[in-house]
């Protein structure tokens, strides 16, 4: 019912809220227009005292970084904006920008192309897989890898298969992996969640 009423990204946000704590470090692996980045920043921030964590947000498109930056400028004060770090890089390189000693609580992917942007710049299976492996390495126990996977465009289903194969291969002793798919809307985005167990 919930999934039918809300957008897939909003359902993902409901799951994130269960995992993310104030002060956490989280990664937006595909920041696009910045909507997810903003949602993550709110989740790591304690409004009562301004205490908060950091969002490391990246996108392979310069236009997307600019779009995210302008959304943050419109919505946040300069102090808050400082807690978002924006990088124009491929998400397979996330380990180069996330500080080594930080414990990352979540890495989130919203795959596909930038809405309203260049549809030929799109996430692809190879680098998505490398980025998933990097996410596995940077994530703290009790953390989450979250993916919204679009299957309506060419290559989308293949990318979903790669994501599913990665999740299926994670050891059951350390991970809980699941997906949420609309049975009566076959082209709707698929949500995949990989929860890393607490030690
Ligand atoms: N989360 C975004 C938002 O809230 O607006 C939407 C993301 S959009 C569906 C997917 C984004 O992934 C695009 O902006 C695209 O440029 C980016 N992208 C594609 N390949 C990438 C890669 N290898 N590394 C990082 N970002 C990539």
Automatic annotation (TrEMBL):
<dbReference type="GO" id="GO:0003729">
    <property type="term" value="F:mRNA binding"/>
</dbReference>
<protein>
    <recommendedName>
        <fullName>rRNA methylase YtqB</fullName>
    </recommendedName>
</protein>
């Amino acid at each position: 019912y919930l999934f039918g009423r809300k957008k897939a990204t909003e359902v993902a946000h409901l799951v994130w809220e269960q995992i993310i704590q104030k002060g956490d470090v989280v990664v937006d692996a595909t920041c696009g227009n910045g909507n997810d980045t903003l949602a993550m920043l709110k989740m790591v921030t304690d409004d009562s005292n301004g205490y908060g964590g950091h969002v490391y947000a990246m996108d392979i498109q310069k236009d997307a970084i600019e779009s995210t930056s302008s959304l943050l400028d419109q919505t946040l004060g300069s102090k808050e904006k400082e807690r978002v770090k924006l990088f124009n890089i491929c998400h397979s390189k996330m380990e180069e920008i996330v500080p080594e000693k930080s414990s990352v609580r979540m890495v989130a992917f919203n795959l596909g192309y930038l809405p309203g942007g260049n549809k030929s710049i799109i996430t692809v299976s190879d680098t998505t897989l490398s980025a998933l492996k990097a996410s596995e390495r940077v994530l703290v126990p009790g953390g989450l890898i979250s993916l919204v996977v679009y299957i309506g465009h060419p290559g989308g289903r293949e990318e979903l298969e790669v994501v599913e194969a990665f999740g299926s291969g994670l050891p059951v002793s350390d991970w809980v992996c699941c997906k949420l798919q609309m049975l009566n809307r076959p082209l709707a985005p698929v949500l995949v969640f990989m929860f890393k167990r607490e030690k």
